[in-house]
Amino acid sequence: MTLVADKGQRVHPHPKNLSPDKRGHVPFSGFHSAIALNATNERCSIPMSLPDLTALPSADLLRLHARISHALNDRGILRSANNPTGDLAEYIFCKAFGWTQEANSQHGYDARDGSGLRYQIKGLRLHRARKTRQLSAIRKLDEKPFDVLAGVVFGDEYEVVRAALIPHELVEPNARYSTHTNAHLFHLRDSVWELPGVEDVTARLQAVEL
Q1: Where are the alpha helices (DSSP H) in 17-129?
Q2: pLDDT at 111 over 90
Q3: Residues 16-20: contacts with CB within 8 Å, 24+ apart?
Q4: In this predicted model, what pLDDT tens digit does every residue of 173-188 receive, in sequence order?
Q5: How many CB atoms lie within 10 A of CB 110?
């Protein structure tokens, strides 16, 4: 195993650091700490498969998750400490189309294009614990707070599965109002891509390099 650092320096984790302790836990050192310490380095690469993280104790997994979140935040991919799905969706759409991101405090839409069209950007991640295609709540839909809903479905490892641009006039009749959330709920099912007027932009987003 070899980590390549900024100036071509190679970091070799000591083999003993990868051995489980008496409780069967792998210490958060050696290879794992090298990943965390070099995570903010733009030129750092890991030219091998990731190790089996199931051997790490939960506390170390949380520490690694936090450091990775900080590194992605420093690179501008994440803009908050929340679940990364929403921030990643905004980043990848704006990078793919050259849209201008709005401030986090902006209500109703997340980005504008050169012509002034407003985009509300939403993403969902499919994984073992989530099979639903329901997006997060859309508020004040009847007031038309956006012109186009930009939606993306991510896979378990945040790979782009499908993406679409959905005009506002198609969102409202295909959404369900929830009195519990006082907002509309929209499911990004495969049938959405069959609606006349919906633009399939899956390939455009898949071409974005992170």
Answers
A1: 31-37, 58-74, 84-97
A2: yes
A3: 18/51, 20/55
A4: 999 999 999 999 999 9
A5: 22
